[in-house]
User: Fold these one by one.
Assistant:
Number 1:
Amino acid sequence: MVAEQFLKELPKCEHHLHLEGTLEPDLLFPLAKRNNVKLPDTFPQSVEELNKKYTQFKDLQDFLDYYYIGTNVLITEQDFFDLAWAYFTKVSKQGLVHAEVFYDPQSHTCRGISIETVTKGFKRACERAEREYGITSKLIICLLRHLEPKDCLTTIEEAKPFIQDGTISGMGLDSAERPFPPNLFIECYDKAAKLNANLKLTAHAGEEGPAQFVTDALDLLNVTRIDHGINSAQDDELLKRLAQEQILLTVCPLSNVKLQVVKSVSELPLQKFLDNNVPFSINSDDPSYFGGYILDNYLQVAKEFPQWDYNVWIKIAKNAINGSWCADKRKDEL
Ligand code: ES4
Ligand code: ZN
């Protein structure tokens, strides 16, 4: 296995991180108190109890139930700033150089908190992270696929000023995958693309869902990146296409284990992706819930793919830089 110090210093890009998924129990409870938010009686009532729950989830839905309750403690612009700032501070010590981060506007607008409040708080943290840590970043909104597509259209309308002025760089699709396939969101993606031709598009696909959902996201939603995408490995034609079009898969190893998508990181088809020239990056998804940030994910992969030498890791790092949505000038610096 390559040295830990090498992986720490390797310039890393994060492409799959839900800012709400960085909410650590030790911030969740103080925020609940600060904002007078009552957590459900069935929710763990202490940091210790909550950490215990986070050691294993039954599946994606089991996790999402906790994740959406946690989100309820975020109310003010300062809360959103504090959340993202805590994240950037942690990863500034892990060799992160560029972060393209998700948030779920609908989990806040449904509680009467405006997209403006959320976006301004996050944006302020991004700007400070660039100034103080040299970490560049992009904001990506995600549509919640368990909600009605017509509600998602409203969200896109509310986000319009930020999509048009470039504050929001991309749009994705998350939440429960299997019951809510990509074809439901064709109109949403069309609408968003029309608001700004530079808006980047991605979608969670092939995490719990089949390879067909990855193909559908590419064909029907015109995405240029796939979040997770690990089930693509079951379709050789799709692998060829991903390689041909250099579609980046944003793989989340610790997440896949915690949500029991795979039994261990070693089961992930990463060698197959490399052999087929399918680009992927290594990411942390919801680090507070899944037991590790970007470097922890890199280290776990290195442990379970000990045959990979420095050249393989350099290739992975380069693929991540190339698949980023930053300007070419920034890519050269990275
Ligand atoms: C998510 Cl792991 C995962 N999958 C789908 N949606 C999500 N939202 C936050 N984490
Ligand atoms: Zn995700």
Note: The beta strands are 12-14, 96-103, 136-144, 168-174, 200-205, 225-228, 248-251, 280-282.
Number 2:
Amino acid sequence: EQDVNEYRKSLAIRVSGFDVPKSVKTFEDCGFSTQIMGAIKRQGYEKPTSIQCQALPVVLSGRDIIGIAKTGSGKTAAFVLPMIVHIMDQPELQKEEGPIGVICAPTRELAHQIYLEAKKFAKSYGIRVSAVYGGMSKLEQYRELKAGCEVVVATPGRLIDMLKMKALTMTRATYLVFDEADRMFDLGFEPQVRSIVGQIRPDRQTLLFSATMPHKVEKLAREILTDPIRVTVGEVG
Ligand code: ADP
Ligand code: MG
């Protein structure tokens, strides 16, 4: 019985904010194109996870979100799938004006994983995804960014290096994601996060995902998000 209670707690979903879009039960409910549906099926995803059921309609509606759920709950697809829709909604995709989607993750391993996930869904649309993190040649990354991309997945420090080198401009960036925000703080990236936010237009859509929500992350979220909807899955600190 103890186990059952623990299990129930782990599935508890709380949503707050005003005008919350209705949650979905299936990927079809999201109104994804057949191309995206095909990519989802190829991934072997049959139905959305708890966080995806709540987060997908929120993000697809253009609202800012704070998504709190433990590791392994499927947060990546919750921001990657709506990002593809967001990008395809933009006019003149071919213009070389810098990325539309900017995703920040605290470590190069995480950035690389997100990069791979984003590429799976972006590929069939001709959406170019660039990865920018330490341990790779700055010159090579500079060249890649100069060639143009619609999505950049980056660690905060290296993204700032690239911005200083004018490898990319943020004029077209309207979809900003901070993944694993708690770890971002643990690793001391708060100043870099703030610097990046300061370089992206205020009429952007901002998404913040985290496994836990310490006070410092809460405070930052309040500063950088506009009327966010908060989705919490499970009991988290
Ligand atoms: P998180 O970022 O919350 O830790 P991930 O986005 O890395 O979680 O997803 C964890 C795993 O679940 C990955 O292997 C991913 O491919 C898989 N996954 C994500 N969404 C679904 C889904 N709807 N159905 C089945 N597997 C999924
Ligand atoms: Mg993750």
Note: The two ends are 23 Å apart (CA to CA).
